[in-house]
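Predict structure. Input: NAD-dependent dehydratase, 328 residues.
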Amino acid sequence: MKSALVCGAGGFIGGHLVKRLKKDGFWVRGVDLKFHEFSETQADDFVIGDLRDQGFCRAVVDRRFDEVYQLAADMGGAGYIFTGEHDADVMHNSVTINSSVLDACHKRGVRKIFYSSSACMYPAYNQEDPKNPKCSEDSAYPAAPDSEYGWEKLFSERLYLAYRRNYGVQTHIARYHNIFGPEGTWIGGREKAPAAVCRKVAMARNGEDIEVWGDGEQTRSFLYIDECIEGTVRLLRSNFSGPVNIGSEEMVTINQLVDMVADIAGKRIGKNHVPGPQGVRGRNSDNRLIRENLGWEPSRSLRAGLEPTYQWIAAQAARNVMPKARVA
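Output follows.
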């Protein structure tokens, strides 16, 4: 039986990835600081611990896993990333996790490692026009991310590429574009735009306004979790190393996102535009490279992903309780 290691298995994407790997017949070890908040893990072995610790990394990488997925990071949505209050932690924690995990895998002889980078590493100067952002993979340099989170992602990409070049480790790098879906963070400050909008609409009465940061004309694309997982697995099992975008090319304004969620909810919802962190003015995935190299790209519409996401978040909000992490 093949074996896989998922670092960050207690998180949103990691939890869904564990489920996919089990369906594919893998023995799976999950590692995280916490258990998944919203579902029981399907991992055969789940280890609680700190991946910044080199000794702990060597202990959990105790075999030549057939596949390693490194998703663990200090991250969150705009309300967490763009305040500047968490920059040192974001950079220190994520860089330390990546260097520790990657080196432990190299020294154990693990050959195939996936790393989840982010579209936040793209230069801000190419994302000033909300109607025509440039996020092709070859546009990454000259580098100028709009956040320290993006700078860390860019540095860690180079770290994985260096291990591939110097040590022959088969690293595969994806630049994720705004992944969303059920069983993800939906409250507390680290949630991303689709979850935040779904929560606000769910908790609003018909005819009420919800707060929208900025003028709402900033543009984004959002990718449903199932397609993120499919692209991730396809990339690691291919001969293509990346970096490559994994995202949707269906770009909408935040105002349009609100309207779409309101329509799904069957509510009339107004918008109260208020000051708040917004990030770049425009961002959209460019999928030419993934089509060329994997013969695949995401195809699910934004609305088709928002419908189950809204229903899940509305059910969470109806309980009117903050999510609590399970304890061992």
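The two ends are 28 Å apart (CA to CA).
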